[in-house]
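Researcher: Next entry in the queue.
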Amino acid sequence: MPPKTPSPLKTSEKQYRKKTPLDPISANKIWADICNQTERMERKTGPFQFDVRKLIIIPDKPNYTTPDGTVTMKEYEEAIKLLEKVDPIKKREKIPPEKYNLPATVAQDYGWYSKPLIKKHPLFQFPKGMCEITEYADTYYKSQGRNPFQKRDFTVKDHMGKGPTSANPKSPLK
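Model: Structure for this entry, 174 residues:
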């Protein structure tokens, strides 16, 4: 029995053969085969013709309007009054229990008649207080009319003719 030779290492990667450059004739033949194959796979259809008998007419959208003319100021004011009568702004700002007698949806059932069970007791209330810095800034603003932490506004009038920050250019020394 002949001695066993060690087998080459097997790799999990695919081994690709080296690509040899194709001559132009072979490349054109491959391209022609691909083109012929795609041509055979395509579905041939005739020229497009519009069939008037199968025409479906779609109506305009319900909100689409074409203005007939300009609206006068009187018509505009009447429209605004009618809009306020139908849907007043004050009614829009109310919460649903104030607007309606009963809940409109099932989701509104929860919390519809919600009122606090226990009245607020001052012993258990902890409102946010002001710290010393905030109190100082508040009193400073009330007395001076400006924020103590805000930097002073820069104006050219303040710095006219005062040393290196002058707005006027200096003449050269003689």
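Model: Confidence is low (pLDDT under 50) at residues 163-169.
Researcher: Noted, moving on.
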